[in-house]
Design goal:
Blueprint lengths: L1 H32 L3 H80 L5 E12 L4 E5 L12 E4 L4 E8 L4 E5 L6 E6 L5 E7 L2 E6 L13 E4 L11 E5 L7 E6 L6 E6 L2
Antiparallel strand pairs: 1-2, 1-12, 2-5, 3-4, 3-12, 4-5, 6-7, 6-9, 7-8, 8-11, 9-10, 10-11
């Protein structure tokens, strides 16, 4: 049995060797003698698929490398595009940041313009000879009057340039002033640098309040500057009054007046 099995294996190897040797001869025969194409057609059904399989096996690494290379090119393009987008975003951020101080400077200049706008051409310096500051009232008397050109409704400022009140009564050499702290005083004011209007209501010894805003969406915040507004009256526009002390209750806010208590006052004489 062992001898027969061994003989069978040797026979198969010999047959394979013979086939391997005859195949080149067969192909040379086909190429040189140009036999009938029936043989070639018959061989095509076997040779062509086998060639495709062999070709796919041989070119597989090449195709894989090509696909990897294509993916790398796409990723490189995405990275380059991301870098460009970041650069543009940085430029826009830098421009926005640079606009912040310009906006602040513009607001400061606008506030300065508000303060000096429409000021009268002439002013009279007068001494305060009597002051009545109580729980509810705030009035004082000046030592100059009609002879100096002072009239009723003239605005009166402190020496540091803030509104003190308006003249309510006048004689030849005296004038009575109602201060903006007086409970009977309701001074039309405006938020500097905006169109928001309102009224400053006096509360005697307590801080006056800014209320009755023209813009319902306005939210008072600490530090906002208030200035006078004529609103059709005799009070000049643009006289500084003070700053909002804190946000208050949203409908009204306390105001820290800028006027300093002094022994003298400035009366603005209208044309």
């Amino acid at each position: 049995m062992d001898i027969k099995a061994t003989s069978s294996k040797i026979a198969k190897k010999v047959q394979a060797g013979i086939v391997a040797c005859l195949l080149p001869v067969f192909f040379l025969y086909i190429l040189l003698d140009k036999p009938d194409y029936k043989i070639m057609n018959a061989m095509a059904g076997f040779v062509v698929p086998a060639a495709h399989v062999v070709g796919d096996g041989i070119t597989w690494p090449v195709r894989v490398i090509k696909k990897i290379n294509d993916n790398m090119l796409v990723r490189r393009g995405i990275r380059s595009e991301n870098r460009e987008l970041r650069r543009k975003l940085d430029e826009l951020t830098l421009k926005q940041t640079s606009c912040v101080p310009l906006a602040a400077e513009n607001q400061r200049l606008e506030q300065t313009l508000d303060i000096v706008r429409s000021q009268p051409k002439r002013a009279v310096l007068s001494r305060i000879v009597y002051e009545n500051s109580s729980f509810s009232s705030n009035t004082f008397t000046l030592d100059k009057g009609e002879n100096a050109g002072i009239k009723i409704n003239n605005a009166v400022l402190s020496k540091n340039g803030f509104l003190l009140g308006t003249v309510t009564d006048v004689g030849p050499n005296w004038a009575t002033v109602r201060g903006i702290r007086d409970t009977g005083a309701s001074t039309p004011v405006r938020v500097s640098g905006s169109d928001v209007l309102g009224f400053l209501r006096g509360r005697g010894q307590a801080q006056p309040v800014f209320e009755l805003f023209s813009d319902q969406e306005f939210s008072p915040t600490k530090g906002i500057i208030l200035i006078s507004v004529s609103a059709g009256g005799t009070l000049p526009d643009g006289i500084p009054i003070g700053k909002i002390a804190n946000a208050g209750n949203g409908k009204s806010a306390p105001v820290a007046l800028g006027a300093k208590t002094m022994s003298e006052a400035i009366v603005l004489i209208q044309k």
